[in-house]
Write a structure and sequence with these properties.
single chain, about 450 residues, alpha+beta, Alpha-Beta Plaits, 3 domains, eight-stranded antiparallel sheet, about 30% helix, about 30% strand, amino acid binding, ACT_dom, ACT domain-containing protein ACR
Length: about 450
């Protein structure tokens, strides 16, 4: 073992010891705010602490309305103002215990952030990871191949952005219902799916991978799309997202304090904070201080960051890359198109049949969530026409009649209809100096950067 590996092992063990001696303390305050429950997290600081906490809160389906974060030094202190999905304060008396269980010493891992509420246990399933160039009908072809190979799709999530597609698919053997671990069969599955992904245009950039472990699928999707460089706008069209709904991101250095300050403004939606923190973590930045305000139609986020070596961003090119990557992280989950919800008895080949009907009627799937609850299939699809434009109502009704009017329903999705208003464009720096920086300054955490 070389010196670097030996040093890393010692650091890991020391960090684990510190966590065991100082387990995270979670307190829930329902009295201070009239509109939200305050969740306070104090713990010894470690790599990935912020993402760990945000991931747990997100997986518990909590909406984060405000957040004040400080991890400058050996201690990590966060305050989150949260509500349930309906905007109400939390009523569960055991919410602190649930969070404590997820953030306790047993759930901490130096190398990964996989142990969380939203982690998909895969002991009876095989995980297939797919990335490639998006095109109309691609999802239909993928599900058709899996059906032909006697694989049952138990769950899946599909994201598309900037003409790229990433998907995590959980499959089981059609006959046994167990995971598929035969090497020859897995190789055949990978080869055929790779052939579908490559098509005629993506000979080099398509990729398939197989895993028998466990993972947090949304965390993994961010990593896959980041690795696939979906933030690189030079390789494809920017998509159908309106410029008015484009996130506004600024990056500048606070030189005398040694931080890089990232300001972000965009329409608010669930899991927004998780998406941005994932990206900063994947890019190997450490968040030292942050303030989040998301109490209206728009969300405002400010981060004081450094590289893992303690240095701020040193070039304009890197600043621009951070901007592009954060914009991509926000838009990956943006739900373009009409939301269709399918609920029916599950059966082998259901997804293949449904997506084939979509394809035959000229529908393109921009995002999909596939779940199996007992004997029921509960699936969500966002669809546009093949050009990325809204689908005509008569086309949707024709599809519903073919699949089943009582099975497939059209649902409004407020999160996909919140464009930025031009009248609200103003200096992000001014906003945060008057809110977040003032708060952090009063706490003695930072000094003014003006």
């Amino acid at each position: 073992m070389d010196c670097w590996s030996s040093s890393l092992t010692v650091d890991e063990e020391f960090e684990k010891l510190v966590i065991r001696m100082n387990p995270p303390r979670v307190t829930v305050d329902n009295a201070t705010s009239r509109n939200a429950t305050l969740i306070k997290v104090d713990s010894a600081n470690k790599r990935g602490s912020l993402l760990e906490v945000v991931q747990v809160l997100t997986d518990l389906d909590l909406l984060i309305r405000r957040a004040y974060i400080s991890s400058d030094g050996e201690w990590f202190m966060d305050v989150f103002h949260v509500t349930d999905q309906h905007g109400n304060k939390l009523s569960e008396v055991d919410v602190a215990e649930k969070i404590q269980q997820q953030l306790g010493p047993r759930s901490y891992s130096f190398r990964s952030l996989t142990r969380s509420v939203g982690v998909q246990a895969a002991s009876k399933q095989t995980i297939i990871e797919l990335t490639g160039r998006d095109r109309p009908g691609l999802l239909s072809e993928i599900f058709a191949v899996l059906t032909d190979l006697k694989c049952n799709v138990v769950a899946a999530e599909v994201w598309t952005h900037n003409s790229r597609m990433a998907s995590v698919v959980y499959i089981a053997d059609e006959t046994t219902g167990l995971s598929i671990d035969n090497p020859e069969r897995l190789t055949k599955i990978k080869q055929l799916l790779l052939y579908v992904l490559k098509g005629d245009r993506d000979k080099m950039n398509a990729n398939t991978a197989v895993s028998l472990g466990s993972m947090h699928k949304e965390r993994r999707l961010h990593q896959m799309m980041y690795a696939d460089r979906d933030y690189d706008m030079s390789d494809a069209n920017s998509g159908s997202t309106s410029d008015r709904s484009k996130p506004l991101v600024t990056v500048e250095n606070c030189e005398h304090k040694g931080y890089t300050v990232v300001n972000l403004r965009c329409p608010d939606r669930p899991k927004l904070l998780f998406d941005t923190v994932c990206t900063l973590t994947d890019m190997q930045y450490v968040v030292y201080h942050a303030t989040v305000i998301a109490e209206g139609p728009e969300a405002y986020q400010e981060y004081y960051i450094r590289h893992m070596d303690g240095c701020p961003i040193s070039s304009k090119a890197e600043q621009q890359r951070v901007i592009h990557c954060l914009e991509a992280a926000i838009k990956r989950r943006a739900s373009e198109g009409i939301r269709l919800e399918l609920c029916s008895d599950d059966r082998v080949g259901l997804l293949s049949d449904v997506t084939r009907i979509f394809r035959e009627n000229g529908l393109s799937v921009t995002r999909a969530e596939v779940k199996t609850r007992g004997s029921q299939a509960v699936n969500i699809f966002y669809v546009t026409d093949a050009s990325g434009n809204p689908v005509k109502s008569e086309t949707i009704e024709a599809v519903r009649k073919e699949i089943g009017l009582t099975i497939l329903h059209v649902k409004d999705d407020a999160n996909s209809k919140s464009p930025l208003q031009e009248s609200l464009i103003f200096s992000l720096g001014t906003l945060f100096k008057s809110r977040s920086e003032k708060i952090l300054y009063n706490l003695g955490l930072i000094k003014s950067c003006s």
